[in-house]
Amino acid sequence: MQVRLNKYLSMCGITSRRKAEKLILEGKVKVNGKTVKELSFKVDLKKDRVEVNGKLIRPQRKVYIILNKPPLYLTSLKDEGDKRSIIHLLRGVKERVFPVGRLDYNSEGLLLLTNDGELAHRVLHPSYKLPKTYLVLVEGKITKAKLERIRRGALLEDGFAHPEEVLIRKTYNSKTLLEITFTEGRKHLVKRYLGHFGHKVLRLKRIRIGPISLGNLKRGQLRYLTREEVRLLKESVGL
Ligand code: URA
């Protein structure tokens, strides 16, 4: 059986098909020892040896994991010296998975990890509009009028941002617990967005990505998604 080289790279968990094309054009991919820059090149699954940056790659079983990232862990697969990183929580996972998007060092909650490059690309890309929902504790009280303003969207320094939904979950004396959903994932988006309205974020926890909920997964624990969850997740991004 033959598949296009970019598809092969994504089957091996290297990256999405689109980013794989970039790697090919940059001359980072070799087939049977020769650099291939042709995007239409087809790989024979049985015979060909494909290398990326000098490393032999092979198709992998696709796995989909969710982790409840605790606060004060970096979303990084490297050992980061004195700061703890999620790599310490992934012991026992044999497949080479990577996190789909980031949670800040002090944020917590649902982190999806996979070796499915195409799915990862679609979960993150704003054009697929997959909702990500956060529980956020902010400083200050939020009146109904203010909530309406927050729902309308705002111009941030890197463009307009518009949440899909904002709900008040609880009101305290000088704090508010919000549930906010965005279908995009720019860096520090939730903190910057609520900061724009004068509300400093005190705690931030992601609780949902599309059809996948954190549920009662304990802090620091992970689990493999069920077949049905994988099916729903793929369906939600057109796969
Ligand atoms: N938005 C943020 O500001 N931080 C996160 O960790 C996730 C979304």
Account of the protein in words:
- Strands 7, 8, 9, 10, 13, 14, 15, 16 and 17 form a 9-stranded mixed beta sheet that branches.
- With 239 residues, this protein is α+β, with helices and mostly antiparallel strands.
- The chain is built from 6 helices and 17 strands.
- Helix 1 (5-11) packs across helix 2 (17-25).
- It has 3 domains: 2-56, Structural Genomics Hypothetical 15.5 Kd Protein In mrcA-pckA Intergenic Region, Chain A (Roll), CATH 3.10.290; 64-125 and 217-236, Pseudouridine synthase I, catalytic domain, N-terminal subdomain (Alpha-Beta Plaits), CATH 3.30.70; 131-209, Alpha-L RNA-binding motif (Alpha-Beta Plaits), CATH 3.30.70.
- It has helices at residues 5-11, 17-25, 117-124, 144-152, 189-196, 227-236, and strands spanning 2-4, 29-31, 34-35, 42-44, 50-52, 55-57, 64-69, 98-99, 108-114, 132-139, 154-156, 159-161, 165-171, 175-182, 201-209, 212-213, 222-224.
- Uracil binds at residues 103-104, 107, 188-191, 204.
Brief descriptors of the model:
four-stranded antiparallel beta sheet, Alpha-Beta Plaits, nine-stranded mixed beta sheet, 239 residues, Structural Genomics Hypothetical 15.5 Kd Protein In mrcA-pckA Intergenic Region, Chain A, 17 strands, alpha+beta, 3 domains, binds uracil
